[in-house]
Amino acid sequence: MSINNTFKRYGSVSMAMHWLTVLLVMVAYFTMEYRGLWPKGSVERDLMKQAHFLAGFSILALTLLRMSWRFSQPHPAIEPALQPRMQVLAKLGHLVLYAILLGLPLAGWVALSGWGKPIEPFGLAIPVLIGEDKALAKTVIEWHETVAKLGYWLIGAHALIALWHHAIRKDNTLKRMLPLRG
Predict the structure, then answer these.
(1) Is residue 182 part of a domain?
(2) DSSP state, residue 134
(3) What are φ and ψ of residue 165, in 5° steps?
(4) What CATH number is associated with residue 99?
(5) Which single residue of 50, 97, 133, 177 has CA 20 to 30 Å from 144?
(6) Is the C-alpha dihedral spanning 65, 76, 154, 36 positive or negative?
(7) CB 163 within 8 A of CB 126
């Protein structure tokens, strides 16, 4: 398998970035959903928050890399081709997913900055984006949490649509992103 995309298939770099993003998103959701298992102020809860912050920063960096890679590589065609309306919906869906992959980490970063808390996931000092503004931080984190909840539905829809393409439509959409052929 080539590291570069072809017009038939994604290359190993695109696949690795996609599946690493999936893993990091799972870590981000898991750490926030299960942090409540430990009391506030406990070492375990703090580790969950730190892992969440690090996953978010990693998602942001990886998404920026993915976008630059995506625009520098050919985009494998879906075969058989989609109807124009479905092509527009597919592009819109990916645009929304990329917006969330960029927007949620940035919102979290702004909120942390606005609370005036040092941002040091696992000892890595991250610069603040804004000065202390607790009211703005509260508003931004509410948006962050709301969009994250919407993210469950969008991620689920993305996976179901990929399975629909594979099982019902019987096109190559899913196969283009899987490392193994078969």
Answers:
(1) no
(2) H
(3) -55, -40
(4) 1.20.950
(5) 177
(6) negative
(7) no
Q: 72-94 pLDDT, tens per residue? A: 999 999 999 999 999 999 999 99
pLDDT digits (tens, 9 = 90+) for 29-74: 999 999 999 999 999 999 999 999 999 999 999 999 999 999 999 9
C-beta neighbour count of 135 within 10 angstroms:
8
Q: Is residue 35 part of a domain?
A: yes
Q: Is residue 4 part of a domain?
A: no
One-letter identity of residue 25: V
Instruction: Say if pTM beats, i.e. exceeds, 0.85.
Output: yes
Question: What is the tally of structural domains in the chain?
Answer: 1
- Angstrom distance (rounded) from CA 9 to CA 2: 9
163-169: Cβ within 8 A, 24+ apart: 165/78
Task: Please give the mean pLDDT across all residues of the chain.
Answer: 93
User: Alpha-carbon distance 171 to 119, whole Å?
Assistant: 45
Report if residue 1 sits inside a domain.
no
pLDDT tens string 122-173: 788 889 999 999 999 999 999 999 999 999 999 999 999 999 999 999 999 9
Cα separation, 147 vs 169, in Å, equals 30
Residue 21 has pLDDT above 70, yes or no: yes
What's the domain range around 108? 12-177
Distance of CA 110 to the CA centre of its chain: 17
